[in-house]
Write a structure and sequence with these properties.
By secondary structure, the protein is of the alpha/beta class. The protein has 11 helices and 13 strands. Strands 3-2-1-4-5-6-11 form a 7-stranded parallel β-sheet, sandwiched between helices. It has a two-stranded parallel sheet with strand order 7-10. Helix 1 packs across helix 8 (238-253). The two termini are 38 Å apart. The relative contact order is 0.14. The structure holds UDP-4-deoxy-4-formamido-beta-L-arabinopyranose. The site of UDP-4-deoxy-4-formamido-beta-L-arabinopyranose has 20 residues, from helix 7 and strand 8.
């Protein structure tokens, strides 16, 4: 079995991707220092997949630590680099933490991949690189705008670092996946998104409001130029996002790539407003959500959603789960977490 190294394997997207990789015949190993995750998520992945998964609890910002992993783990065929800090508001409060952590870790992963001759590298990028795009849906050729936050800039700069590296080195083949809004949970409801602290993202706030952990949800603005006045986003089920990584690695390992650097949007290809997301949740849960309309949130883009033609044609990947499934699996996970208390 081909072995894949996943950084951030204990995190939300990382843990769901481990499941999809194993389901598709890969062997996996994780690096995660649990700064924003916990080992219980990995233990549950082992329970679901019935596979023992080794996690190296090291700081990727210390290169010698990363090299030790590659010395110990022979024949790593590919890398998926998830490990990064990803809170937009936190990045505004603490930009140096974000620039150091997200960029230093990427540079080390690239240097070690080169040293140990790992030729397939999937990088976790983000739709936040588009900022307030002029055209919708955004394609991979859409001109990038200001990233709106240090977090978004770490993804823009990360893409630039890889771009400049491949101009001089052809040893590694990169795919950069621009995620839209990852939501939902594994159908078993045994794993899902575990907000590190108070959640900032819409869907965990919806489910925490519904279960009573939060009093009321505030819709950040209903006076935008959209069909119902609230912002438009492209929500993508985390298991569909996970499968996009598996397909990306298979594509690189099978040497189907014509270049050693390519960018691919991974979204549902559908834009939904905040109010539509709330309505979908109410329909699948049977719960009337307690929300109010508030002012706009600084830094929010009005509308963004993906053109996913390239993912379909290049990877043969299509999202399978709709908005209602995203809401239902999120809700089932929230209820499961409650029983664990
Ligand atoms: C979605 C919409 C809010 C909370 C996220 C990640 C970012 C990146 C892209 C990966 C917005 C509205 C939210 C609330 C609300 N992902 N909202 N009330 O800002 O699109 O960014 O996806 O790289 O890392 O953060 O997601 O869930 O915060 O907001 O009205 O209490 O929901 O205004 O329109 P966002 P979000």
């Amino acid at each position: 079995m081909k072995k894949i190294l996943v950084t951030g394997g204990c995190g939300y997207i990382g843990s769901h991707t481990l499941i999809d990789l194993i389901d598709n015949g890969f062997d996996v190993v994780s690096i995660d220092n649990n700064m924003r995750s916990n080992m219980s998520q990995l233990q549950t992945v082992e329970q679901i997949t019935k596979r023992k998964i080794k996690n190296y609890n090291i700081d990727i910002c210390i290169k010698t630590e990363v090299e030790k992993v590659f010395e110990e783990e022979k024949n790593i065929e590919g890398i998926i680099h998830f490990a990064a800090l990803k809170s937009v508001p936190e990045s505004v409060e603490n930009p140096l933490l974000y620039y150091h952590n997200n960029l230093q870790s990427l540079i080390h992963m690239m240097q070690v991949a080169e040293k140990f001759n790992v030729q397939s590298f999937v990088f976790s990028s983000s739709c936040s690189v588009y900022g307030n795009a002029d055209e919708l849906p955004v394609t991979e050729l859409t001109e990038l705008r200001n990233a709106e936050s240090p977090y978004g800039y770490t993804k823009q700069i990360g893409e630039r670092i890889i771009h400049d590296f491949v101009k001089k080195n052809s040893s590694i083949n990169f795919l950069l996946l621009r995620y839209f809004n990852p939501v939902g949970a594994h159908e078993s409801a045994l794993i899902g998104e575990v907000p590190f602290d108070k959640p900032n993202n819409l869907v965990p706030i919806i489910t925490q409001t519904a279960i009573g952990k939060m009093k009321q949800l505030t819709v950040f603005g209903n006076d935008y130029p959209t069909r119902d006045g609230s912002c438009v986003r492209d929500y993508i089920h985390v298991m569909d996002l996970a499968n996009a990584h598996t397909k990306s690695l298979q594509f690189l390992i099978d040497k189907k790539n014509e270049t050693n650097y390519d960018i691919i949007n991974i979204g549902s290809g559908t834009g939904n407003t905040v109010l539509e997301a709330i309505k979908a949740f109410e329909e699948v849960s049977g719960i009337k959500l307690n929300y109010q309309i508030g002012g706009r949130r600084e830094g929010d883009t009005i509308a963004v959603y993906a053109d996913i033609t390239k993912a379909k044609t290049l990877l043969g990947w299509v999202p399978k789960r709709d908005l209602k499934t995203m809401m239902l699996t999120s809700w089932n996970w929230e209820k499961q977490m409650q029983t664990k208390k």
